[in-house]
Amino acid sequence: MAEYNLNSEKLKKLEEYIDGIEEKEGALINILHEAQDMFGYLPKDLQLYIARKCNIPASKVFGVVTFYSYFTMEPRGQHVINICMGTACFVKGAEKILTEFKRILNIKEGNMSEDGMFTINTLRCVGACGLAPVVMVDGKVYGRVKVEDVEEIIKEYKK
Amino acid sequence: MINLTINGIKVSVPEGTTILEAAKKANIHIPTLCYLDLHDIKMVNRTASCRVCVVEVEGRRNLAPACATEASEGMVVKTDSIRAIKARRTVVELLLSDHPTDCLVCEKNTQCQLQQLAADLGIRNIRYKGKMSTYPKDLSSESIYRNLDKCIMCRRCETMCNEVQTCNVYSAVDRGFETVVSPAFGLPMIDTQCTFCGQCVAVCPTAALTQISHVSKVWEALSDPDKYVIVQTAPAIRVALGEKFGMEAGSIVTGKMVAALKRLGFKKVFDTDFAADVTILEEAHEFIDRLQNGGRLPILTSCCPSWVKFIEHQFPDLLDIPSTCKSPHIMFGTIAKTYLADKMGINPEKIVVVSIMPCLAKKYEVIRPELKHEGLKNVDLVITTRELADMIKEAGIDFKSLCDEDFDDPLGESTGASVIFGTTGGVIEAALRTAYEWLTNKTLEDVEFQSVRGLDGLKEATININGQDIRIGVAHGLGNARKLLEAIQRGESQYHAIEIMACPGGCIDGGGQPYHFGNLDIVKKRMEALYTEDRNKKIRKSHENPAVKKLYEEYIGEVGGEKAHELLHTHYTKREKI
Q1: Contact state of B174 with A67 under an 8 Å Cβ cutoff
Q2: Residue B326 in contact with residue B303, Cβ under 8 Å?
Q3: Which residues bind [2Fe-2S] cluster (chain A) (predicted)?
Q4: pLDDT score at A70
Q5: Which residue among B11, B256, B290, B310 is least packed, with the fewest CB closer than 10 Å?
Q6: pTM (2 decimals)?
Q7: At a CB cut-off of 8 Å and minimum separation 6, what does A67 contact?
Q8: Does the beta-carbon distance from B184 to A59 stay under 8 Å?
Q9: Which residues from chain B sit within 8 angstroms of residue A69, using beta carbons?
Q10: Are residues B329 and B472 located together in one domain of the fold?
Q11: Looking at domain A79-158, which of 3.40.50.300, 3.40.30.10, 2.40.50.140, 3.40.640.10 is its CATH number?
């Protein structure tokens, strides 16, 4: 295991999980979910480990990881900020909200802030169009968000 | 049988036949792009992703892709209705809207199937404008040039790489407009388990996958007065080069090829076949040594650099089974820069060895660090059959009207055994001709081993030598090779010797050969031509090559001896799967 630049304790847990699966190839998506839950993201070495462990080509594992927007190869911060870019939120100015989050945290969409606290993501419609524009932080919903609210939201999690 | 009507013509076809195949039977041409059927090597790309072959089927709301829709009883198909033609045109225009229109300076100019399609459909205007996909170009390997701006997502390369060659380098990555065929983690090709067989290049319809050209470096060397530029040609070139000049597939153009190379300015024109004869001596010696002294069997041939890289990545635990012989063109390079340099009194540093190869892996092979002798690369530059044809055209040589000329001495002498190196089964047949005579001290009267010939993916033969049955296996295409290697791993292999070539059909269908555009009859004709060339040779056994005998007498000494090992053998490296 020394060849992978990964937390060996977590890797051992993942190995146990994979060993418990009989038909590994068909379970790739489940395995990737489990791995992302454990490690927070799916770095290259983790994908390589899974590929070799399950005897699936690394190119295929990478193909699946990049296909599904749920999977991420970027480390995630303690708090994930999701800004809805669905039609209703978009026309209500979600773009400006996103820009403000990016400005204050000084990161790009999909990236983690330097202190490891936040990651900014966008998603398409959380089904709360009446509250547009909507921001979700770790599952908590903020409705009718204005640009000037952004700083307050961030502060809430910095405590 | 199933009865259907296509454009008013009644057609009967067996169950399971696609509309495309049925139309072909009725002499109706439906244009295709992503579709590719190489049934002789068991590859069919039927992703139906391009939608160029859409046709109208009565009673169906949507147009159907002819390549992937099975004919059914009573079906009424229209391939030439306004609706089908308009849809086809729209599809091609959309493809072109995300494709560079630099055809005039494109590597595949006049050889591109997308270009041909646009011409056939008479497209004069692209109505759609939008975002163009751009990707960094990959020139990392010295072998395969990936320019994905020109990819049309037909997925032929993926089918070839994953299903036929089982190398699994490529996968569709990302989604939507961003989707791209890529190695894992977008790695440059040199950092992957790619074997550089070039079969993806052989089936790519556009210039998304081509070779990294060394033509300009060859021109430069040829015009440098301080360099002594010599050339060698692999066996498979002489039966394919003519195609690039409008000659019938399978034309043997050995003499014209030599004449053309002399006109291009090469100081000496030699034959890789000479080195193939040397290879046979060394390999047969190694085989007999392992057979008689309890060495590891089966022995595997090692002429194919793509196959060598495959075993290094995929079966690193089996690296003691391939023969340690360098590939013939590398042996040639070593001999040229030692023996020949001595003999002609030329400083080996001034010698530039150019290899004309049917192969893309040989471009990669020459940069392998262990293939150097006294600090000099064994072979300096490798160009493919296609690149040689380009040079001949550029130089204004009228290839078809050239008079035959002979290879130069001493490295131009060769036997029938070495000529058949260019086809699957040929190396092992050549080795058997020599091993049989060395083991029995008898003359082998019938030198043709029919059971190792042909396009079957796996072939075998049993030859009784001195009362012992020697079992031979032959695989071409890396997927077939994998089966034999897995059997060895499980301890179930019954073979004494195995020949493996990475490309389906062997070097005659190498990644550097003229494009066959899905017509494998061309490859079969090249194969027949090599066997004809063998039959026409006075000497058909490698150990009877007089120039090779002289090389050993004057320079190398014993076959398999110390000097032979220093010059003609190599070692392999464990590599990772990625």
Answers
A1: yes
A2: no
A3: 84, 89, 125, 129
A4: 81
A5: B290
A6: 0.90
A7: B172, B173, B174, B175
A8: yes
A9: 175
A10: yes
A11: 3.40.30.10
